[in-house]
Amino acid sequence: MSRELSRLAMTVLHPGFDGTTVPAWLRRALGEGLGGVVLFARNAVGARLVRQIRAENPAAVVAIDEEGGTVTRLEVQAGSSFPGNRALGVADDVELTERVGRQIGRMLAELDITLNYAPSVDVNSNPANPVIGVRSFGPASDLVSRHTVAYVNGVQGAGVAACAKHFPGHGDTVTDSHLALPTVHASREVLAERDLPPFRAAIGTGVRAVMTGHLLVPALDPEMPATLSRAVLTELLRGELGFGGMVVTDAIEMRAVAAMLSPGEIAVRALDAGADAICVGIATEESLHAMRDAIVAAVRGGVLPEERLAEAAGRVRALSDWYAARTALREKARADVDPDVGLEAARAALTTTGAATLDRGPLVVEINVRHSQAVDPATPTGITAALTALLPGTAMVRIGPDGELPPFDDRPLVLVVHDAARHAWVRDVVAKAVAARPDAIVVDTGIPGPPAGAAHVATHGISRVSAQAAAEWLTQ
What we know:
By secondary structure, the protein is an alpha/beta fold. It has helices spanning 3-11, 24-31, 47-56, 85-91, 94-111, 141-157, 188-195, 197-204, 230-240, 255-258, 263-273, 285-300, 306-324, 327-335, 341-349, 383-390, 424-436, 464-474, and strands spanning 13-15, 36-39, 61-64, 115-116, 161-167, 209-212, 246-248, 278-280, 351-354, 363-367, 395-399, 413-417, 441-444, 455-458.
C-alpha cells in the first residue's frame, strides 16, 4: 500500500465518532490525512472539540447537520433557536430565510465548522413522507427553489459551506431511508419539473456541496440507489446539472444501502459512481481502516480508477480551501448579530384557527409519535416548557399509541401532536379528547391535519422559538 494512495483513500472518508473528546484513533487518522469528521449531538459539540480536530489536521472538513427546527445537533436539549424549513416556507419571506441561514452559518462559524449538511431541498410532494416532512420548505418546487437560494446564500454568506440534500430528491417517498431503501416512482419528466429545480437553483447560487439520497429512482437507474449510481451522480448531477463541487453521501450505515453491501463496498461503489466524500455516521479505528483498505484494494485491482479517487480527494480539498479563504467573511458574520430572527420567523409561520386565551397553567397532553431517525430522540417539542415559563403550574403527561388519556379536571387542556395528518391513532386520540373537552386547544408541531378543538395552532415545526411563538399566541 503506497503512502500516497492510502492518503487519498483517507481524504475521502468522513466519519463520526462516539464520545465528547476526540479519541486517540481519530487523532491518528487525522494525522494520516483523514479528510473530514462529522459531528453529532452525542459529541457535545463545542469550540474545544473542533480545536482538537484541527490540531491534528487543520484542513479537515468538519461537518454537522444543523438544519434548524427538528434537526439540530447544537441545541438538542432546549430546541433550536431557529424554525425549520417548513415554517420558513409557510412564512414565505426569502429575506427572512436568508437571515435565518446567515445566523445558523454564524453559529457554525463561531465554532470553526466547515460544512453544514443543510438545507434539505427536497420537495415534500408526498404528505405521507415519514422522514422529510417539515424538513422541506414545502410541497411546491418553485417555493422550495427560492428558499433554497436564500438559505444557501445566508449560510455561505457567513463563510460556512452549505450542502443541498438529498439528491435527486427524497420528497416523494413513503419509506425512511434510515430503515430501508425508498423508491421514487416518478418519470424523468416529473423529476425534471418537480424534484430537480431546487438542486438547479442551489447549484446556480454556488452551493459548495450536494448530499446524495439513498433512493432507488427507476426512471434514472432501475438497479442502483442514487448514492451508488453513475447515471445519477456523474451523468445527471455532474453532466446535466453541471455541479462541480463536493458530492457527499448520506451516512452509509443507513439501512437503505447498508442492507445491500459492506461499508467498504459502499464506499468503493459510491466513489466510482461520482461521490467525493463518504459520510460514516459512526466509525471505529477498525471500521475506518477496513474502508480505507477496501478503497486502496479497489484501485489496485482496477475496480476504481486512481484518477477518480484523486479527483474525489481534490474536491474535498477544494471545499477545505474555499473555507480557508473566507476567514474575513466569518469574522464579519460573527459581528452581524441578529438575535431575534428565529423568533420573528417562528411568529410569521404560525397559523391558527379558532380562539383561546390561557390565563392559568393548563394540562398539556403530548400525544407522542417518534420522529424520524434524522431527529435526535432528545429533541423536545418545547410546548410545555414555553407554557410553563408564562404560566406557572402548567403540567404535562405524555401518551403513546397504546396509552390512555388521563382524567380531565377543570384545568385548561392543551393537546400537542406532531404530523396528525399522518397518524390515524393520533387523530383518534384527539377526537376522543375533544369529544370530552370541546374547549381543548390543539397544537400541531408538524404538517397539520384538519383543525380540531376550540382552537388549533400549527407551528409547522419543532423548535424552541416555534414553541415560544405558540405559547405567546395562547396567552395573549
